[in-house]
Amino acid sequence: xxxxxxxxxxxxxxxxxxxxxxxxxxxxxxxxxxxxxxxxxxxxxxxxxxxxxxxxxxxxxxxxxxxxxxxxxxxxxxxxxxxxxxxxxxxxxxxxxxxxxxxxxxxxxxxxxxxxxxxxxxxxxxxxxxxxxxxxxxxxxxxxxxxxxxxxxxxxxxxxxxxxxxxxxxxxxxxxxxxxxxxxxxxxxxxxxxxxxxxxxxxxxxxxxxxxxxxxxxxxxxxxxxxxxxxxxxxxxxxxxxxxxxxxxxxxxxxxxxxxxxxxxxxxxxxxxxxxxxxxxxxxxxxxxxxxxxxxxxxxxxxxxxxxxxxxxxxxxxxxxxxxxxxxxxxxxxxxxxxxxxxxxxxxxxxxxxxxxxxxxxxxxxxxxxxxxxxxxxxxxxxxxxxxxxxxxxxxxxxxxxxxxxxxxxxxxxxxxxxxxxxxxxxxxxxxxxxxxxxxxxxxxxxxxxxxxxxxxxxxxxxxxxxxxxxxxxxxxxxxxxxxxxxxxxxxxxxxxxxxxxxxxxxxxxxxxxxx
Length: 516
Hints:
Elements: E1 2-7, E2 10-15, E3 18-22, H1 45-48, E4 53-55, H2 66-72, E5 78-81, H3 88-95, E6 101-103, E7 110-111, E8 117-123, E9 133-140, E10 143-149, H4 157-161, E11 167-171, H5 186-211, E12 215-219, H6 247-256, E13 270-274, E14 279-283, H7 288-293, H8 295-314, H9 324-338, H10 341-346, E15 349-355, E16 362-368, E17 373-376, E18 384-389, H11 390-398, H12 405-411, E19 414-418, H13 424-430, H14 435-450, E20 456-459, E21 462-465, H15 475-478, E22 479-482, E23 485-488, E24 493-496, E25 512-514
């Protein structure tokens, strides 16, 4: 089996029974804030895109690159389709010209032509990607690989059941806007960022230990930020709170926990797995250590080369003809009327401050969840406030974007302030700005709230429900108790055991009893 690194979470897997291209991403994403790093735009995509199968893990724009898929990927390729609750991924791929789809069933092994076996595990909670994320398991001639990309399953039991995995590809770096965009003192942001960075690595070590693969491939990050306004987010400034460590940092941190089996791929690196998957040899277009030693120079060269495209894209966002308040009322108020769980979960008004083109004026608009309306801000207290450029909201309206998480929020082109705990329902709602997504999310929360987790585990003096109330992670694997606080390391959620109260976000009470 041959694995060619094609950048970020993308790779091409070649076997004697066929080839699979995974998550090809080349063009800037999220309002041109994210770029693949190292740069992969100069690879021979005409050849790389001539494959038998295409796998797109989910609809995040650093995995689903519509422009690149349309231009370079063979439309003869059969799409390996995750079993998602909505048809959006298939619909968008069909719009790009793909016609052949193999609809997988989650957690079920499918045998394709020539003995090539695949399994896709689909995650389908409203907080998994844009209503879905997935991992791809591949086996041929006794060699097994797991492309976990940035999916976060509660455990890897299903993959272990299928036999020893030889190569494990997984995310290790950040892919979020927290804490950088929050209006906090710099020392607080650094402290929160350091906690986030440590949690990312800790989660990665747990997944690696779960699977115990022969070789570990750190993928799916980090992006780089080439806009001057976002340049500080690159991990080149000695900031211990930066949440975007690169592969060279991964190697250093992995060595601290005894890791010796990492394989870093640059775009164009080729790994051959042989001897039943127990041996690997990798060739690189340039030495890995040398590349990352010159990271700043690479970023600066890339910034200048990409600047014209970036400026052209920024110039396309303004739509002064759009009546922002009127259009938001038209789009969001019907969804507020239908929303029960999400609206209740948000529980109050959310304010958007829109900065004018010249930066002088601000129009404040409130999405009033209890009142079920969108209206001008009325000088009331709000728990969540976002501030961004008016043209970004104009563009979201102009393109009828149904997922602001997969556009505005991941762009980091905003600032935020909140009073109190993190509220996942705010972000869940703004990724569900369509009838189909909203109805699915409402149904999921309805079923989730009514389910009862009866199995318990022991944590010292405490008996606690086994599954985390947040997203059902197995606390026997991801739980840590310090004093009276239980932390689920999968997402960093904390619970006060005496009261059961969630200390991290709204809702999600845990069942816990002190042993006598």
